[in-house]
């Protein structure tokens, strides 16, 4: 009987490995950037075309490779980062897996150019689907250039599973930001389709964070610094008033490696306990330095999860250090029973010097004269020797008894009450007439500020006010965007709203749809937009919340066709602006909401496919009482 187990050919094994290593173009970006960092480069360029589907190129000025290493780096399990198994617990580099380049070369056209500083000539290698096409010497600058073209050219099924260019580009930005934030000592530049997207010079940690996210990031940051035997914590957290709905700007770095940790995230949220609104997420950029032998990085294929020896101690230190920083910069409330607030120096007096008091003396004051009191007070109102001459003795009040004449006489009152007339307040106008109010009282009732009950011929209908309002707003927004007839209300003072570069990219994609809903964009810059008009049913204070929620909902991808994009925007805006559970509605508002719901094309469900109302028949109620 023949054997059924056999060794896989190298090209098949490489494609299987590529399925684990390379999920999308962003995976290639991550591997190549980390290799450039490990090569001790001080200048790294990332060049992208068509969101990485056509080209991903990384150029660095690192130490490069010789001819042998250039050929060997494409073999499976080939790495310069480790030699023994014990090295896995003392890692100071990033790419140590040894399958990245072999996997990338198996599913793309690869061109690599590399040269060491002491060599006269470099090496140029071209590979197509694991097949070496050419290898030759070339005149090259110091460092390595790695170009990956036509990703997944030999695996069409995998290429079909890629998302839109906008989504893939955003994933590339995420990977670029993670590497750039971890290494402020390296100059990074990023080009997409010939346009420069980022130019990050060598800087401090704070400057790197501000350069990456632009806007008013510098005003939001509170520094965190703590040095212990277990861990050294440094970085920045945002002030509570700048918290967002989404978790976009949250970064943990352990030994300059980006990681994801729900446990450490919980420690950060515990430090903000009591000073954040419900559902708000703070931004943080935290860098942890721990002994390499106290962590295990090799527990996840993407190396973004780390196992710590003493997680509980790390949790407590991280929580305490953030809480201390928030309190130190007067961001968090502090109870100090020994402090007297009355002794605090007002802020506008902090830098002022105290004025010397002046002494004024009345040289003419005589304490033994009869009018000493009068003269004393007269002298205190003016300075100099002429103060007594300005005093005038008040004239004596003549016949003061006349002031009290007639007080003992009885007051005269009218004998008949008919003679008394009172002014009455006349209601000149009413919002609704009595018949309307009586009709409203009889037809709608609000229960627990959540449901609206209205009687119908067969029983009663119970409406969920939040879901019903979502349906009404959704159809209004969708109609406005479809027929392009949305009305706007002009703002007296335009709004300046600041966003990160990634969020500005999203807004650029959504700008036309937002204009159709009623927004008027007066100006659009690299880090902020100026809005001079908003939809009629949106208040000025809701604009930033609405756009933030919209960007959060679209983080997972913008639909390709315009109808799906409009549908997504309408749903997000309806969710943000709908009346919330717990809001008390007037009788007229309840009526309008119920009437608006049943005027919709599909009143049965909310935009998120949840029921908006239920009906109860009289027979069903009778059965309840018959039990």
From TrEMBL:
CDD domains (alphabetical): HATPase_MutL-MLH-PMS-like (cd16926), MutL_Trans (cd00782)
Top-level division of the source organism's lineage: Bacteria
Domain MutL C-terminal dimerisation span(s) in chain numbering: 443-585
Family named by the database record: Belongs to the DNA mismatch repair MutL/HexB family.
NCBIfam families: mutl
Function: This protein is involved in the repair of mismatches in DNA. It is required for dam-dependent methyl-directed DNA mismatch repair. May act as a 'molecular matchmaker', a protein that promotes the formation of a stable complex between two or more DNA-binding proteins in an ATP-dependent manner without itself being part of a final effector complex.
The name this protein goes by in its record: DNA mismatch repair protein MutL
Native organism taxonomy: Bacteria, Pseudomonadati, Bacteroidota, Flavobacteriia, Flavobacteriales
Gene it is expressed from: mutL
């Amino acid at each position: 009987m023949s054997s059924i187990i056999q060794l896989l050919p190298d090209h098949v094994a490489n494609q299987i490995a590529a399925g684990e290593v390379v999920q999308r173009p962003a995976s290639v970006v991550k591997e190549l950037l980390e290799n450039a960092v490990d090569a001790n480069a001080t200048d790294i360029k990332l060049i992208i075309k068509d969101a990485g589907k056509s080209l991903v190129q990384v150029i660095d000025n690192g130490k490069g490779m010789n001819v042998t290493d250039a050929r060997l780096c494409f073999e499976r399990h080939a790495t310069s980062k480790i030699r023994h198994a014990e090295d896995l617990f003392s890692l100071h580099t990033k790419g140590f897996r040894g399958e990245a380049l072999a996997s990338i070369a198996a599913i793309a056209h690869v061109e690599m150019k590399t040269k060491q500083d002491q060599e006269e000539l470099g090496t140029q290698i071209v590979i197509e689907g694991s097949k070496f096409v050419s290898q030759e010497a070339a005149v090259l600058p110091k460092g390595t250039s790695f170009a990956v073209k036509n990703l997944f050219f030999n695996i069409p099924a995998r290429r079909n599973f890629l998302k839109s260019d906008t989504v893939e580009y955003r994933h590339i930005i995420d990977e670029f930001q993670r590497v750039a934030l971890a290494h402020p000592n390296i100059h990074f530049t990023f080009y997409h389709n010939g346009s420069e997207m980022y130019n990050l010079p060598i800087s401090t940690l704070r400057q790197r964070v501000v350069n990456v996210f632009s806007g008013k990031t510098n005003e939001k940051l509170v520094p965190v610094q703590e040095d212990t035997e277990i861990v050294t914590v440094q970085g920045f957290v945002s002030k509570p008033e700048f918290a967002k709905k989404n978790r976009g700007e949250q970064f943990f770095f352990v030994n300059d490696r980006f990681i994801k940790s729900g446990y450490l995230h919980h420690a950060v949220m515990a430090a903000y306990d009591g000073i954040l609104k419900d559902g708000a997420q703070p931004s943080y950029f935290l860098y942890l330095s721990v002994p390499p032998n106290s962590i295990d990085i090799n527990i996840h294929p993407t190396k973004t999860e780390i196992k710590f020896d003493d997680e509980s101690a790390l949790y407590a230190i991280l929580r305490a250090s953030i809480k201390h920083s928030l309190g130190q910069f007067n961001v968090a409330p502090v109870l100090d029973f020994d402090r007297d607030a009355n002794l605090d120096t007002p802020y506008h007096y902090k830098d002022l010097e105290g004025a010397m008091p002046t002494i004024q003396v009345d040289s003419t004051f005589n304490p033994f004269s009869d009018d000493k009191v009068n003269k004393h007070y007269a002298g205190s109102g003016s300075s100099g020797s002429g103060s007594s001459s300005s005093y005038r003795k008040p004239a004596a009040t003549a016949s003061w008894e006349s002031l009290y004449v007639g007080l003992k006489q009885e007051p005269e009152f009218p004998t008949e009450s008919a003679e008394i007339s009172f002014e009455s307040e006349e209601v000149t106008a009413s919002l609704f007439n009595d018949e309307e109010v009586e009709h409203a009282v009889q037809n709608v009732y609000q229960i627990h500020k959540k449901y609206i009950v209205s009687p119908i011929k067969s029983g009663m209908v119970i409406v969920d006010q939040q879901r019903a309002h979502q349906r009404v707003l959704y159809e209004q927004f969708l109609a406005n965007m479809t027929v392009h007839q949305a009305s706007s209300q002009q703002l007296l003072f335009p709004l300046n709203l600041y966003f990160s570069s990634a969020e500005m990219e999203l807004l650029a994609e959504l700008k036309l749809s937002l204009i159709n809903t009623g927004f008027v964009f007066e100006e659009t810059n690299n880090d902020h937009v100026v809005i001079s008009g908003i939809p009629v049913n949106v208040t000025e204070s809701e604009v930033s919340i609405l756009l933030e929620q919209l960007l959060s909902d679209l983080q997972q991808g913008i639909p390709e066709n315009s109808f799906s994009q409009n549908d997504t925007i309408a749903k997000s805006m309806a969710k943000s602006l709908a009346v919330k559970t717990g809001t008390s509605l007037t009788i007229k508002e309840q009526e309008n909401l119920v009437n608006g719901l049943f005027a919709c094309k599909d009143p049965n469900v909310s935009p998120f496919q949840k029921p908006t109302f239920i009906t109860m028949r009289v027979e069903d109620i009778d059965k309840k009482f018959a039990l």
